[in-house]
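Let's sit down with a protein and look at its sequence and fold side by side. We need material for that, and I hope you will provide a protein of your own picking. Once you have written the record down, we can walk along the chain together.

***
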Amino acid sequence: MLKIDAPTEDTVRHVAKHMRDGDVREFLAVSFAETREELAEILVERYGQHDSVFCFFDEEEPVGVGALIEGRPNVTTLLFFATDKFPSLALGIAKFTKNRLFPRYRAAGVHRIEAISIAGHDDAHRWIQMVGLSPEAVIPGFGKNGEAYHQFAWVADDVR
């Protein structure tokens, strides 16, 4: 059963230390971290007490961490990482994201919601599209070792 709550350092650490291999590869490629353990601590420091972050639970076990982070005025970036238990909650988290989270930000003036994901992380790409973001581009050389990333976005009709 899906439960949504604010993150704590412990819940973010749990998800970060147990996240899917594709998520580890994706985040390591755009991080100064070199190991899963270093990456976990960076994610805890960044998102463990961030007010825009949500932690998704299967009953009491943290399974995913997600957020919309406003990096530029009226433009947010979708952040998400999860454990291997994510598929059991994927649809519920997608519904929350698409039907409750995105509308709240759009009502506050956000005209662009974007996400990037490493090439080959097909499960993530399908989920990103499930929440309503469309493929925009492939960005070669985006990762620290030259990894390509895919960019996805939703853009309000009035700014297209």
